[in-house]
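Appendix C reproduces, verbatim, an entry submitted by the partner laboratory led by Prof. M.T., so that reviewers can inspect both the input and the predicted structure.
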Amino acid sequence: MLDPVIHQATRLQILALIHRNREMSFNELCQALHLTEGNLGAHAERLMEAQYIETFSALAGTRFEKRYRLTTRGSDAFRAYREELARLLS
């Protein structure tokens, strides 16, 4: 069965981008996915509740920015989701 947390289109896109880039800032995700701050915040919160992503602060120039990365649990869940989707499509 496909993970309902990941299966939602925006959350799937968030995980795919973070997986591909290893980590991304809040602003990078907003711009890449054309999301409002509130929309991204709500989806990121759901992914954090599931323990699929974590947030941390990193120095960017002269200020700190919020960044996201996959957790081990999130990486495993994303891999399992892709495998199940491939199985269903074959």
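The first strand starts at residue 23 and ends at 25. Additional entries are available on request from the coordinating office.
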